């Protein structure tokens, strides 16, 4: 009865909105699915299979209410690269393994860590993929019959050697498609009845009519087989499996980044909140399933998801309706694809690629940081000039280096001379002649880890001549300490003991204190009172002062 009520409530409330949104998203996604498949070097129907299966599975199992999944520009370049290296069996197996990676990411709750990948790296990847996609469409835009190439320079060389065979009609179709996609929405935005009409569909109809009416000889998509894909088994060859692991991980990483970025965009448009780990599991389930039905790797697509939202989607059912409508088109309208010019698809992908190259983020990064700019440009150039697997590996390495450099720059060590003598602990120290002459205080700001040791060593070397018997290390602003930091701290304490200096650790954060207490040598030093630990620096100063007074009394007695 409860299920019946929920269904009835849905039919009365959200059904019409979801059906409308799903229908328009499917119509917009149709040429994109075909275009991405061709750009990936596979048969056009594989793009439709991917859009249908991924759209349905991710909408049913994912953690983003409005995301629409399927083939995308982000996946096109790595799919093509993997196809050239390992063949169709390799790309299907890589997609399957990538899905396992993504499900594992979700189960291990790693979704939140994607946001820690620096924006310059993400922008470099995305823009590089956009540039590769753009270059890859040049042959189709010119009406040339050239197989998809893995490297950008190979495509440019092939175009140059076939320049005599370009088609002016193909160029006009491509340019017209680009202009319609860019400018038609603005021209019809004030006309309520047609303001949401997809410009890609008008461009598609005009392109097909041009081919039929003029009987021109330019490259076409060709007829797409009507019917459902047959189930096939994968080739789980051990050698192939090992070889495709880097590509599979790259597919999983790119799919994860793209899907979660898409989910964030959807949240911003709808004031909703997605479940990143559930979304990764949904994406993984889709990628695990797709290869058995001739599907290529998929991810959430920002453009289609935005259309889904804009057209009034209310629940995940809009994504399922989108898949069902695409399935209907596949079953009954497949032969129409025989007349779709590849030049039209090139125009569609050129617009997609230009939107992937975010000039605004380039300018912002260049204005803010030279270091970020270097990372962005290196990642971008590696993506365009080398294979994407290497670019991803180097991008992740650069992001780690960037984090390391920034953490190193954060560390700072201040002495009491850097602070106002009339306030805080300085007021206590400078008001007492004994403390003033016998206490030195270091305030450590930032993580005390291996990257910060050069700063610590430099500051300590500046004060090698200090003769104060009491040295206080203020650690209130140390968020963590690693093994190198612990070892250097012990070395400093040992050196200080040889000079008859006592060390006091104050305001130590609980997580840092746990690490210190887990070290046997440091624990022993604390037990023997070679190292004292206090909750505050004022307590440490009071202890030093009391110890001094007690020693004076003891000497008098003696």
UniProtKB/TrEMBL annotation:
Example GO biological process: transmembrane transport
Residue span, STAS domain: 437-544
InterPro entries per UniProt: SLC26A/SulP_dom, SLC26A/SulP_fam, STAS_dom, STAS_dom_sf
A single cellular component GO annotation: membrane
Entry membrane topology: Multi-pass membrane protein
UniProt entry keywords in alphabetical sequence: Membrane, Transmembrane, Transmembrane helix
Main location: membrane
Entry-linked SUPFAM superfamilies: SpoIIaa-like
Transmembrane intervals: 20-39, 86-108, 120-146, 166-188, 200-224, 244-266, 319-338, 374-405
PROSITE patterns per the UniProt record, alphabetical: STAS (PS50801)
Subcellular location(s) per record: Membrane
Protein's recorded name: Sulfate permease, SulP family
Organism: Methanolobus profundi
């Amino acid at each position: 009865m409860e299920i019946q009520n929920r269904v009835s409530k849905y039919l009365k409330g959200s059904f019409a909105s979801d059906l409308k949104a799903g229908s328009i998203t499917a119509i917009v996604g149709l040429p994109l699915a075909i275009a991405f498949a061709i750009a990936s070097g596979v048969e056009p129907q594989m793009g439709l299979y991917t859009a249908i299966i991924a759209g349905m599975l991710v909408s049913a199992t994912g953690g983003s209410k409005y995301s629409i999944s399927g083939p995308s520009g982000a996946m096109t370049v790595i799919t093509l690269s993997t196809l050239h290296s390992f063949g169709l069996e390799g790309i299907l197996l890589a997609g399957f393994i990538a899905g396992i990676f993504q499900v594992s990411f979700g189960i291990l709750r790693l979704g939140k860590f994607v946001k820690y990948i620096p924006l310059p790296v993400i922008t470099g990847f995305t823009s590089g993929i956009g540039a590769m996609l753009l270059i890859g469409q040049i042959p189709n835009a010119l009406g040339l019959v050239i197989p998809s190439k893995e490297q950008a320079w190979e495509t440019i060389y092939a175009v140059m050697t076939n320049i005599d065979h370009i088609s002016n009609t193909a160029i006009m179709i491509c340019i017209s498609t680009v202009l319609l996609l860019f400018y038609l929405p603005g021209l019809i935005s004030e006309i309520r009845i047609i303001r949401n009409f997809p410009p890609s569909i008008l461009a598609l109809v005009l392109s097909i009519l041009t081919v039929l009416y003029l009987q021109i000889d330019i490259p076409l998509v060709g007829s797409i087989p009507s019917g459902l894909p047959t189930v096939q088994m994968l080739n789980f060859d051990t050698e192939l499996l090992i070889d495709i692991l880097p590509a599979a991980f790259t597919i999983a990483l790119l799919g994860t980044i793209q899907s979660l970025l898409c989910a964030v965009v959807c949240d911003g448009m709808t004031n909703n909140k997605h479940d990143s780990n559930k979304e990764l599991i949904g994406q993984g389930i889709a990628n695990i399933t797709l290869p058995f039905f001739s599907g290529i790797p998929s991810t959430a697509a920002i453009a289609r998801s935005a259309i889904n939202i804009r057209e009034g989607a209310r629940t995940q059912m809009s994504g399922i309706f989108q898949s069902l409508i695409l399935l209907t088109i596949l079953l009954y309208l497949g032969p129409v694809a025989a007349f779709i010019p590849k030049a039209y698809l090139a125009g569609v992908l050129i617009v997609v690629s230009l939107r992937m190259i975010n000039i605004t983020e380039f300018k912002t990064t260049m204005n803010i940081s030279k270091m970020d700019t270097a990372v962005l440009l290196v990642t971008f150039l590696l993506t365009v000039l080398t294979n994407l697997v290497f670019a991803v590996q180097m991008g992740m390495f650069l992001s780690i280096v960037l984090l390391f450099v920034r953490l190193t720059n954060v560390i700072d060590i201040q002495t009491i001379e850097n602070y106002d003598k009339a306030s805080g602990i300085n007021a206590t120290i400078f008001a007492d002649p004994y403390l003033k002459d016998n206490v030195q205080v270091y305030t450590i700001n930032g993580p005390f880890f291996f990257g910060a040791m050069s700063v610590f060593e430099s500051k300590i070397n500046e004060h090698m001549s200090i003769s104060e018997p009491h040295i206080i290390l203020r650690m209130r602003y140390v968020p963590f300490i690693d093994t190198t930091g612990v070892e250097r701290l012990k070395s400093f304490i040992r050196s200080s003991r040889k000079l008859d200096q006592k060390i006091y650790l104050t305001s130590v954060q609980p997580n840092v204190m746990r690490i210190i207490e887990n070290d046997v040598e440091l624990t022993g030093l604390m037990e023997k009172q070679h190292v004292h630990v206090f909750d505050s620096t004022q307590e440490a100063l009071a202890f030093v002062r009391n110890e001094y007074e007690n020693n004076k009394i003891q000497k008098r007695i003696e």
